[in-house]
UniProtKB/TrEMBL annotation:
Domain of life: Eukaryota
Residues covered by region (Disordered): 355-374
Claim: Transmembrane helix is one of the keywords in the record: yes
Entry keywords, A to Z: Membrane, Transmembrane, Transmembrane helix
Keyword Transmembrane: yes
Amino acid composition bias (Basic and acidic residues), ranges on this chain: 355-368
PANTHER family: AN04G07800
Regions crossing the membrane: 53-72, 79-99, 105-129, 141-165, 216-237
Protein known as: Uncharacterized protein
Native species: Cryoendolithus antarcticus
């Protein structure tokens, strides 16, 4: 099947030469030399143009919103947050070539495809950082090493893309079906690893986790959607299913899969172990702690109450007259309280809020007491 955003035509058009052999520039048809022209221009039919424009608009709009939210919530000095923002920005440009016309259309598409391929590889690096705390040292090295070893394929893919859209070679029609093999195994492993560790290491049920943290509910749903659209894209590109409803060469499924992968990166900016660790701590301390899910994309406990209690001066026990001269660290007297389990030592004339609410005076000779007891 031809690559996305292109089609193949033959002059003269007696038969569909693409069905005979899509890589030859000249073949023999009934003894006559026929030239095969790679028509890689902008889609002309209304259906193809509409679908491609919608898919690009969907991708660019989604990435732009996620980039703005990520920029607003990222913390200074955190490399992971910067990588996520870079991934989103690089992916946007390949959703704008629909506005151009040949000959700009051809080279602009190929140039923005380079940025898109970098964004895909960067997404796998981000996945490695997020899943790294779950992996042993050898597993982490294997993950990032295998990712580095497939980069020569992307050099070939970029070269084939330029040759194809300049009308010089149809090599891209052969490399395109293998994109998923060199792009997505690391992401699938990351998804499976997260689902496994949620159950085994943190002892969370999936429904329980979604109730505690709606953010993780969005994360898990986006992961499943990204893999679902990935499978559909593979089946469509390899002709395992006949996408007869789509114009030839138009593939919107990879754009949808890419958007949902980016949602997974931006919905939780921190690594998975940090987020899940804080959620588990909340689960264990939910009776005495308050959890807040900040807009930054990380999970944090609201310990303002604890800090306030630690910094606040201890109450002054009026049962001990020596404490009247004790000042706090700010040079102020702490609030007056009384320990009712201890004798008053002559300070019975001082009444605090607790005593007032109970309508009890500390003076044993109080007229009220004698009136009640008399």
């Amino acid at each position: 099947m031809p690559p996305k955003g292109s089609n193949v035509s033959v002059v003269p058009l007696r038969r569909s030469l693409h069905q005979i052999h899509p890589t030859l520039l000249e073949i023999q048809l009934h003894g006559t030399a026929v030239e095969m022209v790679l028509n890689v221009g902008k889609p002309q039919d209304p259906a193809g143009l509409t679908i491609e424009a919608w898919a690009q608009g969907f991708m660019v709009g989604s990435l732009m919103v996620m980039a703005c939210i990520t920029f607003a919530n990222m913390r200074r000095g955190v490399l992971l947050h910067k990588l996520i923002l870079t991934e989103l920005v690089l992916g946007m440009f390949h959703g704008t070539f629909i506005f151009t016309n040949p000959p700009v259309y051809n080279w602009y598409l190929s140039v923005t495809a380079i940025l898109l391929n970098i964004s895909w590889s960067l997404h796998n690096v981000i996945a490695w950082i997020k899943v790294k705390p779950f992996l042993p040292r050898w597993g982490s090295i294997l993950f990032i090493s295998s990712l580095a070893l497939v980069q020569p394929y992307w050099v070939l893919e970029i070269t084939a893309n330029f040759l194809y859209f300049s009308g010089k070679s149809a090599l891209f029609t052969h490399t395109r079906p293998y994109e998923a093999l060199f792009r997505d195994p690391w992401w699938i492993f990351t998804v499976l690893s997260l689902f496994y560790n949620i159950k085994s290491r943190y002892e969370f049920g999936y429904i329980e986790l979604m109730r505690v943290s709606p953010r993780f509910a969005v994360l898990l749903g986006a992961m499943l959607l990204s893999i679902g659209f990935l499978v559909v894209d593979i089946l469509s590109v390899t002709n395992a299913i006949k996408a007869t409803a789509l114009p030839d060469g138009i593939q919107p499924f990879w754009k949808m899969a890419f958007v949902w992968r980016c949602v997974c990166d931006s919905i939780v900016l921190d690594d998975f172990a940090t987020a899940l660790g804080r959620l588990k701590a909340y689960k264990l301390q939910r009776l005495g702690s308050v959890m807040s899910e900040g807009v930054r994309g990380e999970f944090s406990f609201d310990d303002q109450v604890r800090r306030k209690n630690e910094l606040a001066p201890s109450p002054l026990d009026i049962s001990n007259p020596e404490e009247f001269v004790r000042l706090d660290e700010h040079g102020q007297y702490p609030p007056l309280t009384r320990d009712w389990s201890r004798p008053t030592n002559g300070t019975s004339g001082i009444l605090d809020l607790e005593a007032a609410l109970r309508d009890v005076e500390p003076d044993d000779d109080s007229p009220k007491r004698h009136a009640r007891t008399g």
